[in-house]
Amino acid sequence: MNNSIIIPWQEKYETGVDRIDFEHKIFLELLNSFKFAIDRTTNKHELTRLIIEIEKYAEFHFISEENFMQRIHYPELKDHRIEHFELLEKFNIAKNSNCNFDDFYSFLKEWFIQHTFEEDIKIKKYLIMNNIDITDSFYQIKI
Amino acid sequence: MEADLIKILIIDDKQENLDMISGFFDTEKYYVRSLSKYEDVIRIVGEIEFDLILLDVRMPVDGFTVCNQIKMAGKNRQTPVIFMIEKTDLENIRKAFNIGGRDVIAKPFEIEELVSKVSIHSLLNIHFKRINELMDAKNKIYSIISHDLRTPFNTLIGFSDLLIENLRESGQFENAKYAEIIHKISVKNLELLDNLLVYARNLDSESEYTMSKLNVNKLLTETIQIVQPSAELKNISLSQTFGPSAEIMGVHDLLATMLRNILTNAIKYTPIDGKVEISTYVSNNFVDIKISDTGIGMDNEMVNTIFNEDKSSRKGTSGETGTGYGLMLSKEIADKHDGSISVSSIPDKGSIFTIKLPLHK
After folding, report:
1. d(CA B330, CA B323)
2. In chain A, which residues have their Cβ closer than 8 Å to the Cβ of B20?
């Protein structure tokens, strides 16, 4: 049944920056937890709290990612920030426009895949093309 | 557009945002205008005064610029503006408060938060405007009272005085009595008007009165001159024992009103041929003004309530009436000058009022 399918982590999502990949993995885990909950319960209060959990994490992750971009002088930081703002704005509309939880999940899934795969992956290209070594500029999480 | 609807303007370049947000507001309570184009915003804010404006910051013409243009258009200069900004746009959230935004709604928001903030700030603004209107109306009434209503009393007092004299000279004592009644009531009502005006202005903004350096003995001499005629009518002697010249910081008109009230009272409650003594002396950092009379005095209960707002006035020894506001006002004036006013009294012997005011250093 389609319902139970979770989004697995894929190599193509990898940006090559451990810290960012790590945060993306958590984000994916949150999405999967949300889906897991939707299939298990219809408790509105519980599902709404999960949405807030994702929202707070997105907020944290965006600032985290922007801080990193600032550190490596990423030229597209400004546009990337706008992408983040746009996503938050869409999140806002989806969250507050009476859509059901399944639709909201689908929206988040698309958002995650599109943004990670198309936008965040550009960071990888930038690092490779400019031969930037991030070991000195960025503490690599080792978990 | 019904007058009692709360008028809000929502500005966002994205139509889907406008559609969603405007849907949160009950049309029975709110008149909602949603605009996405800069040109439309500038036109509408010149036409309608809103109670609140919800303004998105990230637009082709940025929200802060739009806000400035709105304020410059004049009609919505005082209208509170709430900015809508994405949660991670920390710089703009800070800026929104710094440039005088009333509040910020961070996206993604909770519907309840947005509706509640809009409701609170629009109602605050409506009440603020209402208070200002009432203040304006009140000030208009004051100026009517102090100019148009007050002036005729001087004519009434002057001519009734002349009439009393003429009637007495021609032996028409019965008619002179009627003229005396007119005279007395006119004097009393003018006194009431003056006291009410001073009281009302006293409650008003502090800036209406400016403090200046005043000589206490000089102020007393001025006031004694004003009440002299009413003392003479009852053949009451006003004796003055002034200590060394003392200077205080105060509002001339307020202090003159206070002294006049106390002196008028002393004369009012002292029988014919009585005595009123006015003395000053300087002690520590204060000047004491003592006004004692040989009047009818007061019992303890009366002494305890004499400065209260809700007590009524009693008639003077020659039937003089009062308003009951004089002493309450005097106490407020003394308090305003960081001073005090106290009274001791023995029934049928007299009363002593002591006013204490801090000396100017």
Report:
1. 13
2. 93, 96-97
pLDDT at site B252: 85
Dist. CA B83–CA B87, nearest whole Å: 12
Q: Is B270 left (phi over 0), alpha (psi -120 to 50) or beta?
A: beta
For residues B50-69, b (16+ Cβ closer than 10 Å) or e, as one string? bbbbbbbbbbeeebbebbee
Strand partners, B106: B85
Closest-CA residue to A97 (of B87, B19, B117, B112) = B19
On whether the CB atoms of residues A51 and A34 are closer than 8 A, the answer is yes
Residue percentage of chain B with pLDDT more than 90: 64
**Which residues from chain A sit within 8 angstroms of residue B90, using beta carbons?**
63
Measure the CA–CA gap between B85 and B68, rounded to whole angstroms. Answer: 17
Task: List CB contacts (< 8 A) between A63 and chain B.
Answer: 88, 90
The tokens 């013409």 sit on which residue?
B61
Which tokens in the block code for residue B307?
A: 């400065």
Residue B55 main-chain phi, psi, to 5 deg: -130, 120
- Give the span between the Cα atoms of B332 and B340, in whole angstroms: 9
Predicted local distance difference test score (pLDDT) of residue A140: 64
Closest residue by Cα to residue A67 from A141, A142, A143, A137: A137
Q: How many CB atoms lie within 10 A of CB B16?
A: 12
Query: What's the DSSP call for residue B201?
Result: H
Q: Which of B10-19, B62-71, B224-233 is least confident?
A: B224-233
- Check if B109 contacts A (Cβ < 8 Å): yes
DSSP string covering A83-117: HHHHHHHHHHHHHHTT--HHHHHHHHHHHHHHIII
Side chain identity at residue A104, one-letter code:
F
Model-level pTM? 0.70
* Cβ atoms of B269 and B295 closer than 8 Å: yes
Residue type, B349: K
Q: What are the percentages of helix, strand and coil residues in chain A, rounded to 5?
A: 75, 0, 25
